[in-house]
């Protein structure tokens, strides 16, 4: 006769066997590498049914007769759970497996009661409530399981009565154990449903977190790529002024000033340390920006540093939910090129104004001046000789005024007429006697250094002569006696250069900045139109003028003329 201790061991063994499917299913959910089409995919349900089938077989293998009266096989528990969770085919498979296992593994005394021990009478209810079970909450699912499981356990408890057995002959402790066994089976079922749903929910939460983390990571990567691609320097700092992020544009600009600096170096320092490394401690505009950052105030304006004009926007970052500031972001745009373009546009506007003035005064002044000059010549012929010097002064001043008008017209000229294939050397050689004559009168000398060959250029001879004469005479006026004027030509890739050098006192940086501004002059009798006219002539030929000057070391004007590629074959310097 089976003892109480042995019966308890058998019941615990059945409980473990009936719960084994949960262990297998938990292992399945922990396999992260398994691909999932959604959070609860059909493969999970199929695996759950298979695990329930294995638990059913295991319970049947461990089945026994409790005190020779009750058939102890808890395989009905995983079988019903698998039927409720599985598909119709899975349901049918388990519905067949349960009576088969009950019949095969039961004791001979219970073979005639397979219908009751396997719960066949509850199959219609199980099949009918399966769909409702899947859509229900955890409590509802436990309730449905109890609805089909409790009657089945009652059928198992009534089975001995069909054999004429009487429970009254059992001792109280054995009867209590049987009642406890019948009560524990549905209770265990509810626990298993709860743990199964909890495991599923935990896995769903983990997958949602993983998906959110992946999405968050992708968004961060996308945001980083966007900030790296924009031509703006973007830097974010925390409440302590420490740099938390910096985009690629900022890193490239920093590498120019601080070679070999890395992103890690930048992220390990504060914005103030970075300003110190860039040697920007004496910049008042930058100090104002840093003060705004310390006070977490919005800043918008221009900052000039390291020879660059920067437009800086500093704004605090505000947490939407809490409404609290959390660091700041700096957006920096290099406006140096734009400022240069704006300066050039101002230069163009001034030239346009000069052109309009020249067009207006040409007709209003030139004709009256010609009439005045004609009458002066008549008066000069009829006047005594002692008045000759006065007439000459007046005539010279009229000619000077007419020259200024001509300079206005040349400066305002927008088109280029009369271009022809010419050699720059021919122009210089034609002007050489005139330049030598002017130099001799001043006690100066002229040196001409021409390269061996120059390509043929499309030039307006008259304008190029005017350019060379203006630059040459300006150089002479800037030198003391015994000064040397040098005209040099050279051929560089895709350009022909004319260099006009003097040995004068040179120019300051302020003078260099205003050199080509109309009406700016350092001469007492100058008009300030000579150099702007030279620049206008060079630009009309597609060229440019560069100036290199240092105080006490003289000045070099370099005029560049481009030439076409096919012309390269005709010139080797």
Structure description:
It is a single chain. The chain has 573 residues and is an alpha+beta fold. Helix content is 58%, strand content 15%. The protein has helices spanning 4-29, 42-61, 76-85, 88-105, 114-117, 123-135, 138-162, 172-229, 248-257, 263-267, 271-277, 284-294, 336-382, 388-412, 424-442, 461-477, 509-513, 530-540, and strands at residues 64-66, 70-72, 233-237, 243-246, 299-305, 308-318, 325-334, 420-422, 445-449, 457-459, 484-492, 495-502, 544-550, 554-562. The strands form four sheets. Strands 4-3-7-6-5 form a five-stranded antiparallel beta sheet, with helices on both faces. It has a five-stranded mixed beta sheet with strand order 9-11-12-14-13, covered by helices on one side. Strand 5 (299-305) and strand 6 (308-318) form a beta hairpin. Helix 2 (42-61) runs parallel beside helix 4 (88-105). The longest helix is centred in the middle third of the chain and has 58 residues, at 172-229. The protein is rod-shaped and about 170 Å long. The N and C termini lie far apart (122 Å). The model is unreliable at 567-573 (pLDDT under 50).
């Amino acid at each position: 006769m089976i003892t109480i201790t042995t019966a308890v061991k058998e019941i615990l063994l059945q409980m473990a066997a009936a719960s084994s499917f949960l262990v297998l299913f938990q292992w399945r959910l922990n396999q992260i590498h398994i691909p999932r089409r959604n959070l609860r995919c059909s493969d999970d349900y199929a695996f759950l049914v298979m695990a329930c089938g294995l638990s059913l077989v295991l319970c049947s293998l461990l089945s026994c007769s409790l005190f020779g009266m009750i058939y102890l096989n808890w395989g009905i528990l995983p079988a019903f759970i698998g039927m409720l969770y599985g598909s119709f085919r899975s349901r049918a498979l388990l519905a067949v497996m349960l009576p088969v296992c009950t019949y095969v593994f039961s004791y001979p005394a219970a073979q005639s009661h397979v219908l009751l021990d396997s719960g066949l009478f509850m199959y219609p209810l199980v099949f009918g409530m399966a769909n409702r079970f899947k859509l229900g909450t955890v409590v509802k699912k436990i309730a449905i399981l109890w609805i089909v499981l409790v009657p089945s356990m009652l059928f198992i408890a009534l089975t001995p009565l069909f054999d004429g057995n009487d429970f009254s002959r059992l001792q109280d402790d054995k009867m209590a154990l049987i009642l406890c066994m019948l009560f524990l089976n549905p209770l265990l079922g509810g626990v298993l449903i709860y743990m199964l749903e909890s495991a599923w929910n935990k896995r769903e939460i983990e997958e949602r977190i993983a998906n959110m983390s992946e999405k968050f990571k992708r968004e961060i990567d996308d945001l980083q790529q966007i900030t790296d691609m924009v031509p703006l320097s973007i830097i974010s700092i925390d409440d302590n002024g420490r740099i938390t992020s910096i985009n690629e544009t900022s890193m490239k600009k920093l590498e120019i000033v601080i070679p070999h600096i890395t992103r890690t170096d930048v992220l390990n320092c504060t914005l103030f340390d970075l300003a110190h490394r860039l040697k920007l401690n004496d910049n008042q505009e930058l100090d104002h920006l840093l003060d705004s950052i310390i006070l977490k105030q919005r800043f918008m304006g221009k900052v000039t540093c390291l020879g660059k004009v920067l437009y800086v926007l500093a704004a605090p970052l505000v947490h939407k939910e809490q409404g609290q500031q959390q660091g700041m972001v700096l957006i920096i745009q290099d406006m140096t090129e734009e400022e240069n373009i704006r300066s050039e546009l101002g230069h163009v506007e001034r030239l346009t104004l000069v052109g309009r003035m020249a067009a207006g005064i040409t007709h209003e002044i030139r004709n009256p001046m010609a009439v005045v000059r004609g009458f002066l010549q008549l008066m000069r012929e009829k006047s005594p000789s002692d008045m000759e010097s006065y007439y000459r002064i007046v005539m010279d001043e009229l000619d000077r005024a007419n020259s200024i008008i001509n300079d206005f017209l040349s400066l305002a000229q927008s088109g280029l007429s009369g271009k022809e294939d010419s050699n720059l050397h021919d122009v210089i050689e034609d002007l050489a006697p005139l330049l030598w004559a002017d130099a001799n009168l001043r006690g100066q000398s002229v040196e001409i250094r021409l390269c061996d060959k120059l390509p043929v250029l499309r030039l307006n001879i008259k304008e190029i002569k005017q350019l060379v004469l203006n630059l040459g005479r300006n150089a002479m006026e800037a030198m003391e006696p015994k000064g040397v004027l040098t005209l040099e030509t050279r051929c560089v890739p895709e350009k022909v250069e004319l260099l006009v050098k003097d040995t004068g006192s040179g120019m300051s940086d302020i003078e260099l900045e205003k050199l080509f501004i109309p009406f700016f002059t350092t001469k007492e009798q100058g008009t300030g139109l000579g150099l702007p006219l030279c620049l206008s002539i060079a630009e009309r030929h597609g060229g440019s003028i560069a100036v290199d000057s240092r105080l006490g070391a003289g000045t070099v004007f370099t005029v560049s003329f481009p030439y076409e590629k096919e012309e390269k074959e005709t010139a080797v310097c």
